[in-house]
Amino acid sequence: MGYWNSKIGKGEELGTVGKYGLGNRNEAGERLLEFCKENALFLAKTYFEQPERRLYTWTSPDGQHRNQTDYILGRRRWRSAFQSVKTRPDADLGWDHELLTATVRLKLRNTQQKKKGWKLDIDNIPEEYKTVIKRKLATKNIREGNSEGIWKALKDTFKEVAEKTIPKKEKKNGSTWMSQDTLRVVEHRRQMKTEGNWAEVRKLNGEIQKRIRKDKENYLKEKCKVLEEHNKRGRTRDLYQQIREITGKPKINTGSIQSRAGIDYIEKDKIIRRWKEYTEELYRKDTKTYTEVQEKAYTQEPSVMKSSAGNSWK
Question: Domain spans of the chain?
Fold first, then answer.
């Protein structure tokens, strides 16, 4: 494309230019800035504080003039991936521009697509399933043969008919209780982050939290209704399955405790033994302790007196 000779200069632009520019902006710099805003790009070099000798990227042949005219552009969504951007004045290039380098740390994602899982919708078993099962079982001779052969024949029959007649439903990964409206607001916030509109992002953060709390409450209410229905009808398996969906998988306690010598114990038997030692030390009676009693000086109260008037006691 040729040389732009763009000078961005000092002056922060939200989401596009950082605080660490150099020099004054020229007309080509204005065009470069407009190009970045239109394409959601940022000038990576201006976001890292460096000594001045690492800010300029061009030096005149006589060594009297220096400017910052070379930049590395990046997508705004990858802003946090850039670790540093700086020039290398000691590089032997043989021309008047300095070598500009960037350190980028990326976490690559596995592009291998997983097959979508599915399971049979046993809550909506059609009448066709019962009819076909009866017809299939009528043709099977399950009175002869060993138990293993009979079991295999029955299993294959039920599996074949179920896959053909019972509708399937996809397994959903992640949180299934968030509403579509909430997900749209989350996507809008992601777009605002990309554009660098942090004021709108902060506003959307509060709105998303309110929506999530409301969605979670509605989800738990619906789950409680389902649990009550399963409990009334005596569906124990379905009841506990719904409870597991709400509570999640049990977490293994991987705690540790230190011994007297400061060694960490993670084995269960050692942890129990250490707690036993600690408890015994805590409640062991110390025979060396004593209580010092100090007598305090006090004035003795007068004894009960008999009043001369009316023979009353005081």
Answer: 27-104, 119-169, 180-247
